[in-house]
Amino acid sequence: QVQLVESGGGLVQAGGSLRLSCAASGRTFSSYTMGWFRPAPGKERGLVACINWSGSATYYADSVKARFTISRNDADNIVYLQMNSLKPEDTAVYSCAAALRSTWSPLTRELDYTYWGQGTQVTVSS
Questions:
Q1: What is the spatial distance between Cα 40 and Cα 56, in angstroms, rounded to a whole number?
Q2: Are 89 and 76 in contact (CB under 8 A)?
Q3: What confidence category does residue 23 fall into, taking pLDDT thresholds of 50, 70 and 90?
Q4: Which side of the chain, N or C, has fewer Cβ within a 10 Å radius?
């Protein structure tokens, strides 16, 4: 089992920044691909970004490329989502997720992930 707890959400003005954190406990964190999701049209949640087990590979949704950065600190069992140049349309509950994978390919679907956090609210005012 892996337990995930998100933090760092809040209210920010458009153009501002926030850094989300996802703290993991349980099984070996470094073996997991980690992803950040938020609600998307036609889906319960859509992928924002994901990162492989070593941190050497990342993938971003087109809507956040060049604005968001995903990273991980395996020593502290934390994955981060740095969000810059925030827009009102980024307003959402952001959830982190974990998938046990020994090889890398971007995991873009909710069903690819086994473990989920409760989510943290991000609100961007115009």
A1: 27
A2: no
A3: very high
A4: N
